[in-house]
Write a structure and sequence with these properties.
- By secondary structure, the protein is of the alpha+beta class.
- The chain is built from five helices and five strands.
- The chain is globular, with a radius of gyration of 16 Å.
- It has three domains: about 55 residues, no CATH class; about 30 residues, no CATH class; about 45 residues, no CATH class.
- About 30% of the residues lie in helices and about 10% in strands.
- A hairpin with a 4-residue loop joins β4 and β5.
- The strands form two sheets. Strands 1-3-2 form a three-stranded antiparallel sheet. The chain has a two-stranded antiparallel ribbon with strand order 4-5.
């Protein structure tokens, strides 16, 4: 999560219900390293003062989907478009994404790639995150 500037055109132009679903306590959740397709969609959206907003493509509490063929029909029916990229590269973690509040570096959710994120933060920024309590040391 990162502090959001409510007056930025990309945020200010969102419908109220969308704003309420994409922000929490003045922060905005952002997906980083989502790949070249998402990078290009975000670039096009940013150039037009818009946000690229999407769901995690699963019904709450029904587990992470690693293939388009695993997505529930009700989610597919609600989507404007579905792009099948095959098996997601982070499937071996079998977890949702790691979530970190970058304002204070609090780990909100330990998940996929936590080990990689933790290593990058320590190596390049001298930031030490609390160890993942779900991993054996």
């Amino acid at each position: 999560a990162a502090k959001v500037h409510i007056d930025h055109p990309a945020i200010a132009n969102l419908p109220e219900d969308t704003l309420n679903q994409t922000t929490h306590d003045g922060t905005l959740a952002m997906l980083l390293n989502a790949g070249p397709l998402m990078d290009n969609i975000a670039r096009l959206a940013f150039a037009d003062n818009r946000m690229a907003i999407g769901s995690s493509a699963n019904v709450s509490l029904q587990g992470v989907k690693f293939r388009a063929t695993e997505i529930e029909q009700q989610i597919l029916d609600a989507a404007d478009i579905t792009i099948d990229y095959g098996l997601m590269r982070w499937n071996r973690y079998n977890h949702s994404s790691t979530m970190i509040n970058v304002s204070d570096m609090e780990v909100i959710r330990y998940g996929s790639c936590f080990d990689l994120i933790d290593d990058i933060l320590q190596t390049h920024f001298d930031i030490v995150l609390p160890p993942n309590p779900y991993e054996a040391t």
